[in-house]
Protein 1
Amino acid sequence: MSLKPKILIADDSAMNRAILVEMLGDGYDVIEAENGREAVRALQSTPEIDLLLLDIMMPEMDGFEVLEQMKRYGWIEDVPVVMISAENGSAYVERAYDLGATDFISRPFDMAIVRRRVTNTLMLYTKQKQLVGLVARQVYENQKSNNLMINILSHIVEFRNGESGSHVLHIHTATELILNHLVKKTDKYKLSAADIAMIGTASSLHDIGKINIPEEILNKPGRLTKEEFDIMKTHTTIGAHILENLPFQQEEPLVKVSYEICRWHHERWDGRGYPDGLKGEEIPIAAQVVALADVYDALTSERCYKKAFDHDTAVRMILNGECGTFNPLLMECLTEVADDLHRALTDNEAAAQMNFGNATRKITDALLHENDLPETGRLENALQIEQQKHTFYVDHTPDLQLDYNEASDTVTMSEWGVKHLHCPREMSFKNAMETLLVSPNDRSAMLDAIAKTDADHPDTAVTVLLSVDGLLRWYKVHIRTLWMRGEETTRVGLVMQAEDVHEKTIRDAKEVTKETIITTGKGMACMMHMLKNVFDVVRLVDVGHTCVLSVDEQGKVVDEDHPCYAVWNRENRCENCVSFKAFTQKTQLAKIEFMGEDAYQVISKYVEVEGRACVLELVVRLRKDMPLSFHGREHLVRSLHQYSQELYLDALTGAFNRRYYEEQFCGQDSADGVAVLDVDNFKAINDTYGHQAGDAALRTIVQAIVGCIRNSDILIRYGGDEFLLVFPDIPEPVFRRRLQEISSAVSDATVPDHPEMRLSVSVGGVYKMSPLSDAVYHADTLMYKAKTEKRQMMLHNHEHDRLMPD
């Protein structure tokens, strides 16, 4: 490690930075930033900065804004700031000092003044840091000694008891996890974060009394006799007695909590525990939680007298009262954190926690190295934030990840997001919201959800539409806001991960029965939200009362205070109302509606929402260049056909697009034949020949497929290089032969300008399976199986429940 002090110079003028570097000489390590935003990033990424020379007038983020950020996040306590500016008016100087600046240097620079003020500032802060370091060393050494002794004692007990070395770690982890959830769930128990950490530490001593139990009883493989069990039960009072006689002040919180846990961690909520038969809240909450954690780990761990139960069985046994009774609140907590608990105690999570612990120790050791200048504040805060991120990323999917740093207003996107959302790796938060979220309503919903979080409840989630590879899909975005705790709790950023819930959202939104949509209020709200990305007007109408309906936040259908015909600038009910006809016939109808010189296509569909019959109206404005004369009907039909093509056809290949399948087709009960095709080695084609050649390959494949199918068959571009084929009314042998013809046609096809390119597809097909969504799912599964096994085609006849040979 360099012994030179590290100085950050933030100035938008390269010449000014060069002058300062020259004046400072070789006695310093210098980092340069050309604006305030870069300075904030440097402060975050380089905790060992000793001094900041900060210009006031800079682009993107000026010097005062940098000082405000440093004050907000507590950095100003660790890094002295010397302002540099040609503006030396009293207002500038006073504002700089008010924001925490240590000194002020005016331009043009005087070498002697610059060097002296830099030297004096560094000397002052060096002494301050040394004092902080001295105190930190003493606190650390005391804490390290305490934890070391606790670990030694607890592991001695484990060794004698024949338990795994992870038992104490498991109890510690489970205790803190349940307690953290408990304090979020209720304010009945006044436990701070420090209290929870102390209880976790004390839990390691819960079985210390076993040190005085004979080994032949501790490690007996069979069932204990009554006399042996009576002896075993005395480990609670022995442990409490040991702690009572320790040469410590008995009023110390750690000693008191350890005593409570040792003596009463086998008490039960109904009073049937031991040694004192305490009941309900007579049992200290620390002992209650450790008791629950101890039972869970005993069930899921192998012992000399039993095999281990799996996680689900252990939880079920506890909830069923097979292991004694527990506080109902704690049982609720166990149910709600069960998945997190299981994950936390698996090898991967334990390894992650161990790595985190090792990182903590390394940072602490570096802090206390005799040649270092301790900077406990910023390092502790950085570590705190990284731990929050770590636990969030463990809990959620690894695909789309987003990390927002509030100090520098920088959103960093994961590789998956850059590739599939077609966005830059770094952008401001405002640009990220506008780039990623296609709907203004989604942006408002996400911002509202984030605003409602706090340090104790940092997690939220919002379901939004994202444009993934050019296709609109529903994603559930999990969000965790990141908080820095100190004298003031401050939000410092957030992390997000997105989970693809498109099929589930569509499936949950509606239940389609031929002509009628039957759905809940929330399901209809979700469906209308999606349709607003396609149509100009999406609304529910009560045709009997000629009023517009809406769905409130609770999913309840309510009447609006304006009539439905007002949208057409009319004062009375429409003549020949298409919605009224759709309602009376319980079907879907469409017509062209005119307003002035503009024409609109209106689609009216009978629906039932929360048991209330009404009509879903979808309105889209037709293009202005469409002639509307009396004799223009033929062109009107062509224009409507073109509109439908623009809405439902894939622009690249001419096949139907995913929207067509999801909005117009997936509600069908079944089709005779369904197949999913995936282009083999398509990534290699793009990497070798380029994306334009890849586009040409997809067009060639579609042309080959179209040449083998009927006009009544449906070809859909289901994903980037994946296609869906639906064959209504097709005999099984013809279906099988048609897929083989398609496979051969693709293999024989030639890509324009690339005759050397070889094309092939993997195919999965099912016959006579319903509903259509299940058929697509199973065909997709068979396709991937064929792809994995390097087979060209796999088919399944659901009707006969047998595999069809290739």
Note: The two ends are 66 Å apart (CA to CA).
Protein 2
Amino acid sequence: MRVEFGILGEVSAWADGRSVNLGPARQRCVLAALLVDAGHPVSLDQLADRVWGDSPPQRAAGTLHSYLSRLRAALPAADGESIQRSAGGYLLRVPEEAVDLHRFRALLVQARQSDDRDAARLYERALGLWRGEPFADLDNPWLAGLRHTLQAERLSARLDHHDVQLRLGRHAELLADLTALADEHALDERVLGQLILALYRSGRQAEALSRYEEVRRRLADELGTDPGPELRRLHQQMLNADATLAPQRQATGALVPRQLPPPPPSFTGRSRELATLDRIMAAPGERENTVVISAIGGTGGIGKTWLALHWAHSSQPRFPDGQLYVNLRGFDPSDAPMTPEAAVRGFLDALAVDAAAVPVGLEAQAALYRSLVAGKRMLIVLDNARDTQQVTPLLPGSPTCAVLVTSRHQLPGLITGHGARPIPLDTFDPAEARQALTRLLGEERVRAEPDAVASLLDRCAGLPLALGIVAARARMHPDFPLAVLAEQLREDSSGLDTLDAGEQTASLRSVFSWSYRALTPEAARLFRLLGASFGTDLGRAAAASLAALTTAEVRPLLAELTRAHLVTESVPGRFTMHDLLRAYAVEQARAADPEERRRDATLRMLDHYLHTAHAAALILNRSRRPLALAEPQPGTSTTELADHVRAMEWYTAEHHMLMAAVRHASDAGFHTHAWQLAWTLSDYLDRRGRWLDLLAAHGAALAVTQSQGDRFGEAQSHAGSSRALMRTGRLDDGLVHLERALALFIELGDRDGQTRTYLGLGWLHEKQGRPRTALEQYHRALDIHRESGNEAGAALFLNSIGYVLALQGEHEEAIPYAQEALELHEKLGYLHGQASAADSLAYAFHHLGRYAEASDLYRRAIGLFQEVGDRWHEADTLVHLGEMYDAAGDHAAARATLGRALDLLEQLNHPDADRLRARLAAS
């Protein structure tokens, strides 16, 4: 029998995966004292000191003997493992790898002796052993001191891991973790140095320098010192743009996705189901040539996701190639289930597929996804699935992968058609429910009030979500007797109710109402509004707009809801709600808030997204004419975005909420919000290659603008739809929308709309092999922009004309157009436009043999593309530069430059990489 012990969290033991009852707190403390020195004797005096400190009982030795005897009886017999008496005291004879602390330390030793790629995996395994605060369920002076030491070891390991990841170029992945860590350790120069370097490498140089200045001031004010030599050296390197700060290049496929959300903080019970999962999932693909699929089913709040995540985290070593996770939102009461297209696209993003390399259509995207995971030992977790149809495109084809699905439905099609093993989940039995409550509240508090505990357990009816909320309420008021809380719950008269899909949820409504009534009035109002809002998760500014508060005012209310377990902070600064809680919040909103008040809240939230996204869209593309937006509703908060990097980060974080906002505005008849939100998304979705989302957004806007007779909004929606269709190769369909948009813009007398349409028509003609027709469209648009004095628009079309001429071999004719475009973009400060125009001008000089001028311009374009984060255009310009070196006879420089381009294309998984690789091999 395999016995494992854990002290990096609550003190625990498992026998063949089943939890062992280790008895009362003092007895668990004795076991912890032995586990810390596993395999080595601990004297009775040491044990007494570790358990009681300076206040041992009169018969400490006898009490210890009693605890040791009970532990021997509780722990199952295993080969050579037992608590033994020796000359030096008592020792726990157990392999070091069976104790998480010693396994953690052994993995750190291995990691520090390995190359970076192996070290990164070893650090991940080591840090993954931590389930929370060491000895979380125990406290005494010895444990407190040791806990502090172990937390320092963990921090040191995290920082070592960060160093490795920074060397591997994974700076973008580290930013969120490092920012939180820097807030927690405000004077730790190593943490701050890592954050500053990650910011610098992510293109946020100004913020990196600002962070350094902030650290310097804080050290001077609080400690009277200057930053240490390492931090000062990093500062000087940033000022000098030192090339040694650049990260190492990573080869394609080096990324190991780790998408699992955090493990459940206080998981308990489910030993039977865990054993079943261990048996089914133990060896994917070995017993039969099919993918191993387990389907966890059960009602809402039963703990399906917690079971899946607990097993997935504990089983990470079985899946060294990573884990993919998606919440399919199958039963969200305020938003549609996630489409298979969106889920597959998310997986492709996690697998580092560049947007430009993503094929069109679900079938082709699913095929690419299956190709990328083929032969890999990966776990795919599909949470909250609606039906088999939603899941099927996400199933890998390789038997080396395993899939874990959770759903409220039984998914018979998945069981019969794909061989999934069903794992039905029921409520806790009385023993499991008591164990769960004991773990959450502590044994002493539970044992002190048996009648109150029995009442609480009866009202929760074994539902894990209800138990968690009850325990959260009790922990918020540690001075309240449990009898008072039980009486409050008994007094609720709502009893059993049906909240969702006809499923009985025991006394869940009474549990929810009990927690809800304990909120302050302000937090209760926010809870109602959050439930009635659209989308799946909100940032603080959106929540503030919903409630007509400032972000500073909403922060403590969100914290109150989080403490009460009524919302979850899924990632720092973003909040989500269990769908049963959302359904309850909707009921309360309908009962307490008039429809007009709820409508105003929705409009404030739509205005938050519209006005913030509008500012972001103008940062991304300086050539766009601003929309004439209506004033936001009073009480609306917006997010300030300082630059291109911040705008892209905001779009990435809010992508799904913005799409939900378009859908909601369309469904609710807010036609102006619908088309204007779709307009703000156009450049972001286009650059990310999310053309199906772009088509969906403008399609929803088109439907509502046509129904409401909004001709201008309809014209904009036609133009946006055409862009998405042409990007996906549907040129004829795109042309239909372009012609309709142009007719409407001419009818409305909108000159800017006409020029934008000419840009689309020119691009379409260029793709269809009609460059002369494309040039006609570009010239027509250029004339309109010049007449109206729109320099940004003129620069855009000047560059388009210059580049088409250069591609046609008319290099002398191309130069004045590209030169004027560059000068205008310089005047306007539009970096992306400068980069594009510099590349066009360099291309013309290069083919005229003016290599020195071309080289300077190519290098300038590359630097600018790096600054704005456009890696594909950076690679494209590197190819141009490499071709120029080759034409000039410098073949070594050509090969080196093309090699840099190949590195980038491989990182992006771009199809051009194959052609460039073959070209380099042939040369």
Note: Residues 430-516 form one domain.
